[in-house]
Amino acid sequence: MLHGMSTSVEPSSERSAAEVNEEIRALWLRSGGTLSVEQREEYQRLVQEWASALPPQAAAEAA
């Protein structure tokens, strides 16, 4: 499920890392591979949300 761009970070318990990853991929597709300033801010927020949604072991492996 894709979520629209929001202005606040949603708690990680609401969305899984896979759901956030899907939104990150959609952002890159919409941008054509080049992010605007606003899109970069959204990307950074999504990456932080994705990292916080990962299980502790997966987060350690991703680092």
Compact description:
By secondary structure, the chain is an all-alpha fold. It has helices spanning 17-31, 37-53, 56-62.
What topology does this entry show?
Layout lengths: L16 H15 L5 H17 L2 H7 L1
Which features characterize this protein?
single chain; 63 residues; mainly alpha
CA-atom Rg in angstroms: 12 Å
Specify the oligomeric state. Answer: single chain
**Structural class based on helices, strands and sheet pairing:** mainly alpha
Overall mean pLDDT score?
Answer: 83
Describe this structure in words.
The chain has 63 residues and is mostly helical. Helices cover 62% and strands 0% of the residues. It is elongated. The mean pLDDT is 83.
